[in-house]
């Protein structure tokens, strides 16, 4: 560049330097007159080509540096914003040179400003570029034309532009009615144009954000955050978290920025374009609230670390997905974890280590909110006109601020850490909330709780807080366990608890981390006890009203998953840990033994109810022999219900509640000395007699006698009298009309299932045909009973649900199910083709990331009459069809099937016999059947490995 050109780039014309750079890339050396008619020297397409090349080369360079870990996430986001700044300034320079009259009159004045996240100097690869065209009150046509020209070029560049054109007065008017606009303008950063306009706007916005307006803004942002959290699950421990909007995510850090800037004053540079300003306000050094001086060095370090961690994860997420994706789904978690260097360590997979770091970081953000927000709110209160001290004397030496409990001036948590638990217990007993400033003090003194691990009084207070009712809508007292966890007190009091904080379970079954799952289970137990679920689980509510071991029950819920993530059987390890933890919490030997037993067996009832035939007397006797005590049976059922309900809202349904209730009743009958489960003949005779008494008024006597002779003992024990009556009608109508196939669908909404009953001639592969047809119809089988009557007819019953875990009730759906089953059994339905079409709408990419190793267990000991085959594998459309087809080919008769899914893992259990009605005994045949079943599981196209047991 010539000396004369260098001279022209000084002073007021320095804004044109980006354009000169771009024109020089084209080999052009125009003078000022040529710039004023730049459209004659450089076409629109040429400027587009230059800008594309400029952005493309810069973005590639930044991405390479970031992915090779030469720069951090925040530094890369800052570089992307600076790159975009440079391109926009060059474009504006071109537009103004093209117009030739830029800013020559007040009406021509224009300032292009970055707002929102882009205004803060940070930009993710596929995020929107938010800009404001700030104009004079009466913008000229020339200014409007320049704005349109700039926008069209930006759109042609493929940039996602969020834009607004407003005058200064329009901005002031809009911020009064739209909190989103006010928030965006807090990060206003002028890029180029008339900087005086931007300075005026900033000054006016600052003057406007005072007193009531400031209070309204602060309250609005806090309420907005609460609504956002509720919409996304209200927990930072969702296993597929929203990085940007979720609780404890990047938006929460940005909210602290906005609250601090609005209430406490945290300035931003006017342009961000000079070296001095970038040194004074370096975006890469962390969130702006750190500079306010209200955090300790350690807290400030955590804030900066969280800021950079989230930006690093966000950039990886954008680059991997190629879009503005903000949700950390299962398919991207292992990729990002690998890119960030999280390798498998011991028994913990790399993805689990990465996600635990994520959840612990989100927890740090939540704690930062507890630390900083009270300062903002207190500052706001003191600025209100006529504000006075709201501190009052409270109960037991504590103070009250605005009706909330706060430690007294003489109380020092460092010197007497027990005071922290005493304050929470005082709030519990007096049914009041703890002041945010008190929570701040708990967080800052959490480490002193270590000294309380063997303190009996602290243990007593903790157990009172643990067992405090968690469902009191008419009272102010909160649920205390989340407070103990969020402040860190629980982890310091119980060191084993700290090992499950943020512990992820990489599956599609659990939606919370281990600590959040346990807390949710305790909360649900409290709701059951309070009666808020009495309509849904009446038996559980009745049981809680007559418990001797309430303390042991709550502690067992707290500890039931305490050993997750340690490798091995977490139930066995947890039972051992309970023997050490319970005495520290003040439980006596009997209570300790009960808790340890409950933790050891906390999966026993659910496993039996969902994967075993509860009509098999051996099942009930074995269970009763393990449980032995009616009180332990009550405790175990309550623990099971709380555990299941806390896994996910989709896990619990009326059908599972029914199975657990039936299992409980049968075991309780044995434990209480009633009819023994082994008295099969007596029970069969009783069932047949009830059926006869109810059928004689409805059907001819010969039809009744014929029906009573058809069923084998397992049939009479497998259904209630009402079902026997329906089946008798089906058999009677089938004989009367000589129907080869009879299908009946009976919705049972209170159990969440539809009962499908099929009566037809038995033949090999019948189960497989029906299972495949039900899959084609979009239904899932949750249980099945297979009965061959003495006349050779099959009476098969399937309990099915729709994709939402509910019963089919719509007449059109029921009619379609019936028709498809009839067509399949008559050979008019191509099941294989139907399943292939179903596969096209199968699992999503994120579900494919979860590995479910195939597993087949063949058990000859758990039933006196049948061999039990348990099959574990990835759930998919047609899985049950493939498995049962394999069993049919191996000449096995299925007596009953029990179908359960845990997210993507299917657990299908079959009670089988060979063609001679015998259990499987030959070791070679058992090995062969296991091998062919594993092979059928490998038919899943996403299953890559198999294992056997």
TrEMBL record:
EC number(s) reported in the record: 2.7.7.59, 3.1.4.-
One of the Pfam families matching this protein, by short name: ACT_ACR9_3rd
Reactions this protein catalyses: [protein-PII]-L-tyrosine + UTP = [protein-PII]-uridylyl-L-tyrosine + diphosphate; [protein-PII]-uridylyl-L-tyrosine + H2O = [protein-PII]-L-tyrosine + UMP + H(+)
Cited SMART domains: HDc (SM00471)
Superkingdom per UniProt: Bacteria
Domain spans labelled HD: 514-630
Activity control summary: Uridylyltransferase (UTase) activity is inhibited by glutamine, while glutamine activates uridylyl-removing (UR) activity.
PROSITE patterns with a match to the protein in the record: ACT, HD
Keywords (A to Z) from UniProt: Hydrolase, Magnesium, Multifunctional enzyme, Nucleotidyltransferase, Repeat, Transferase
A biological process term (GO) from this entry: regulation of nitrogen utilization
Signal peptide boundaries: none
NCBIfam families: PRK05092.1, UTase_glnD
The family this protein is said to belong to: Belongs to the GlnD family.
Function field: Modifies, by uridylylation and deuridylylation, the PII regulatory proteins (GlnB and homologs), in response to the nitrogen status of the cell that GlnD senses through the glutamine level. Under low glutamine levels, catalyzes the conversion of the PII proteins and UTP to PII-UMP and PPi, while under higher glutamine levels, GlnD hydrolyzes PII-UMP to PII and UMP (deuridylylation). Thus, controls uridylylation state and activity of the PII proteins, and plays an important role in the regulation of nitrogen metabolism.
UniProt note: domains: Has four distinct domains: an N-terminal nucleotidyltransferase (NT) domain responsible for UTase activity, a central HD domain that encodes UR activity, and two C-terminal ACT domains that seem to have a role in glutamine sensing.
Protein name as annotated: Bifunctional uridylyltransferase/uridylyl-removing enzyme
Top-level taxonomy: Bacteria, Pseudomonadati, Pseudomonadota, Alphaproteobacteria, Acetobacterales
